[in-house]
Amino acid sequence: MRIPSTQTRMSGRDDSAEGPDALRIHQLSIPTDSGEALAPGTALLGFASDAGVVRNHGRPGAAGGPSALRAQLGGLAAHLSHPLYDAGDVACEGDALEPAQEELAATIASLIGHGHRPVVMGGGHEVAWGSYLGIRSALHAKGKGVERLAVVNIDAHFDLRASDRASSGTPFRQMAEACAADGVAFNYFCLGVSEAANTAALFRTAARIGATFLTDLEMQEAPRGLLAEIVERFDHVYLTVDLDALPSSEMPAVSAPATLGVPVAVALECLRALRGSGKVILSEVAELNPLQDVDNRGAKLAARVVYEMIGDGAAL
Ligand SMILES: [Mn+2]
Fold first, then answer.
1. Is the pLDDT of residue 246 over 80?
2. Residue 155 Cα, ligand 1 centroid: separation in angstroms?
3. pTM value?
4. Fold (CATH) for 2-144+238-310
5. pLDDT of residue 311
């Protein structure tokens, strides 16, 4: 179900009396539902769903992620040289995950088709399958395939689970299977994997599908060489951040908190390095669960991550 952008308007502090450059995100965000006939810009799009988390036996609450994120994002100081749009939300009704993922995909394909760069706000990590379908559809519309697309996932988990039902634990396996069916390579980079939170079977699956991964211990510093290689080798990057990759002391608002985690500054350096390449076709945060938050700490940090994804427009 589509929640129109007129219903997701952000609010925040108003310092406009200090001058024309004293604006905040909520004052610059332009509501649009399709992005049609608008100058290319960044388009926020929420995916209000925790159906995948529930199917994955996690703690529900991620459906409230987009509104908790916007509540913190709206008040941040804007330093933008390109338009920022808010394309509203796609909401999953009950357990109807697959239709919601299809609706998300169609909305994303339309936004990319109109020249925009979506920043998607989950929702559980089941959002990733919808985002991937949307990117794939937009590439196909331009006569391209996914062979030259890198999927970069900053996550404590592989999300490569075998299951007959899609969930927040399966999106990258769904991508791998779709690529195998099409006979094309799946270029999967998973950064921040916790050995303690992924079974040997999942590591075996990661090896079988040819995934490149770095553990949480290896991600205590930014992998500059790998990031440079990704940017060099691929035409497009789909960047998805599962907030449970971050240390639980700083990110309590997730279904499965990390015991070690990727330091926030390292995660932000990765985002900036990829964004600076101009190749990020879509970026995304997943798994913000406001029901587990402590004094809005997690929502504020998630908003900072989205803020970095919005960037300064250089990538467009
Ligand atoms: Mn995940």
1. yes
2. 5
3. 0.97
4. Arginase; Chain A (3.40.800)
5. 80
